[in-house]
Amino acid sequence: MKIVTMACIVMAAVCAVGDTAKFSVFVVDVDTRAPLRGVEVKAWFENNIGWRAWNEPTPYITDVQTTDNAGRCRMTGKTNTGKVSCWVENAPDGYYKALGETWTFKSKSIFGTWQPDNVVVTVALDRVEKPVPLYVRNLVFPTGKLVEEMSDVVKGPVSYDFLKGDWLPPWGDGEVGDIIFRRLPREDLGIGVNGRGQTNKSFRDVVAVDFPGNGNGMVEAPVSATSWLKIRLSLASGFQSHYEQSCGRGKDLTAFRMRDENKCFCFRIRTKFDDKGNVVEGYYGKIYGDVVMKWSYLGVSRVGFLYYLNPTPNDRNLEWDMKNNLCDKPGDLGVLKP
């Protein structure tokens, strides 16, 4: 019996560190695709120890390598799930870090090595070009106010002044409503039923986001999921004045919300045109992570988003220097990004 117990312990220990996984990383300049030598690359290899994680630390297996003259390096580690990832945390001078990729190997060779073992992952680094001071703020409507002011009985819009960095009265001293939030009447989706046979009302709450004025609005920007610098230069056209976000309780009684944290937007406010229809003035900004809708049992409880604003008219440069935040009420910015 003791022998069997000891064997089980040994097997569990072996399982914890898993089997060998190998892959190569190719680090390049995002624009020129030229290989970058001497770049430190980190890799992570997942190990799941199941219920044992309650009282003992999960093995954290990593590998750190440096790219050669061809911009390549080989990563090796052990995983019992096949899940691995790589990234560049300490970028070389003149570049931003990159998140890299995460994926899962599905099979093993007869020798126990995760397959295929010839995977090559390309990590592209963005150049630091012209970082400038910007207004950066994690904007959230005052806690507890939105449930009251944007309840089922819609009491009116909630407006925000980007240049003053404040809400309009009675919640702040803003003067120009550059962006306006309106909660639309709740949509009744009928009676829902969950897996246990319980019933309740299902519904959808919608918040309309509007940019008043000709030429003002926001437009979704194509971004890479692995890039640290999501948006360097604002788009010059395509701005839409109206956007909607929804959340609520579905027919299966589970909460849902439309927000996609991978979405990023450019926006423009206070646009002016000449007599030929050309833009002669405007302020540009960007939004990282979509417009947030906080949800409670009452429905929408708060809205907000992380935005960057260039205070210089007509300047579409949105590359933040990450040192000079012109906003005196930035809020919780979380992990800073340029």
* Strand fraction: 35-45%
Helical stretch count?
2
Order of helix and strand elements from N to C terminus:
HEEEEEEEEEEHEEEEEEEEEEEE
Shape: globular
Task: Give the rounded overall mean pLDDT.
Answer: 86
Structure summary, number of beta strands: 22
The first-to-last residue Cα distance is 60 Å
User: What is the multimeric organization of the chains shown?
Assistant: single chain
Radius of gyration, Cα only, in angstroms? 25 Å
Give the fraction of residues assigned to helices. under 10%
Which structural class do you get from the secondary structure elements? mainly beta
Uncertain regions spanning at least 5 consecutive residues:
1-15, 144-154
Question: Could you give a short account of the major beta sheet?
Answer: 7 strands, antiparallel
Describe this entry's structure for a reader.
- The structure is a single chain.
- The protein is mainly β and 338 residues long.
- The protein folds into 2 domains: 2-125, Immunoglobulin-like; 132-325, no CATH class.
- 6% of the residues lie in helices and 44% in strands.
- The protein contains 2 helices and 22 strands.
- The protein has helices spanning 2-17, 145-149, and strands at residues 19-29, 40-45, 61-66, 72-79, 83-87, 102-104, 107-108, 114-115, 120-125, 132-140, 158-161, 166-167, 179-183, 187-193, 199-210, 217-220, 242-249, 255-257, 264-273, 279-296, 299-309, 320-325.
- The strands form 5 sheets. Strands 11, 12, 13, 14, 15, 17 and 18 form a 7-stranded antiparallel β-sheet that branches. Strands 16-19-20-21-10-22 form a 6-stranded mixed β-sheet. Strands 3-2-5-6 form a 4-stranded antiparallel β-sheet, with no helix packed on it.
- A hairpin with a 5-residue loop joins β14 (187-193) and β15 (199-210).
- The termini are far apart.
- Residues 1-15 and 144-154 have low confidence and may be disordered.
